[in-house]
Amino acid sequence: PNNPMALLTLGRAHLNFTGDVRKAAEYFYRVLEIDKNQEDAHFYLARIGRSTGNMLAAENHANALLQINPYSVPGLYEMAGIKDALGQPELAREHLQVVLDLEPTSAPANLEMGVSFARQQMHEESGEYFRRARNLDPDNPQVLYNVGVWYMVNEEQDQAIQMLSRVVSLAPDHRDASYGLGKLYYERN
Questions:
Q1: What contacts 147, CB < 8 A, 6 or more positions away?
Q2: CB within 8 A of 62, min separation 6: which ones?
Q3: What is the reported pTM?
Q4: 8 A C-beta contact, residue 9 and residue 29
Q5: Which pLDDT tens digit goes with each residue over 6-51?
Q6: Cα separation of 96 and 76, whole Å?
Q7: How far is residue 106's CA from residue 128's CA, in Å, rounded to a whole number?
Q8: Ramachandran assignment for 108, one of left (phi > 0), alpha (psi -120 to 50 degrees), beta (any other)
Q9: In angstroms, rounded to a whole number, what is the distance separating the alpha carbons of residues 91 and 63?
């Protein structure tokens, strides 16, 4: 009953397979009763807090995780998401920058940084990170979709059509890319 790995596995099973967030959290809290420095338990509790809107709990667990391991990439991502949800995009980008310092060739980190800048309508900065992400992972539909939207915003229709067409060819069920592509073709008659 006090095996932290078994409890973590049960918590993840409830979180990922049954969707019972309350039961999952119970297991993760039991892990922390056994080992208050268990990184995965803090990570999942931060994620649960963010997904349920309990931002105080999310931030507390992400902080605890980053105090245990300041270079925890999952913890840094989670804290970036929390800061973004709290309306603190600059702080979110600081955490993403640490991820990029640790993993400069991370397409997901470059993509998230681009998205963060795009949300603030910082077009030039977002484009820089989107292009990096595309160069690092040229067949990732989500990366290509964001690059395509960036081209749409920049009114570069030919490039936007090229990117969104590639997304639809890689992921035919990507509704947002299909919509964007349809919108572009409609605007061109």
A1: 130, 131, 133, 134, 163
A2: 42, 43, 46, 75, 78, 79, 82
A3: 0.85
A4: no
A5: 999 999 999 999 999 999 999 999 999 999 999 999 999 999 999 9
A6: 7
A7: 14
A8: alpha
A9: 13
DSSP secondary structure letters along the chain: ---HHHHHHHHHHIIIII--HHHHHHHHHHHHHH-TT-HHHHHHHHHHHHHTT-HHHHHHHHHHHHHH-TT-HHHHHHHHHHHHHTT-HHHHHHHHHHHHHH-TT-HHHHHHHHHHHHHTT-HHHHHHHHHHHHHH-TT-HHHHHHHHHHHHHTT-HHHHHHHHHHHHHH-TT-HHHHHHHHHHHHHT-
Long-range contacts of 102-111 (CB under 8 A, 24+ apart): 102/71, 102/73, 103/73, 105/136, 106/136, 107/132, 107/133, 107/136, 107/137, 107/140, 107/143, 108/133, 109/77, 110/136, 111/140, 111/142, 111/143, 111/146
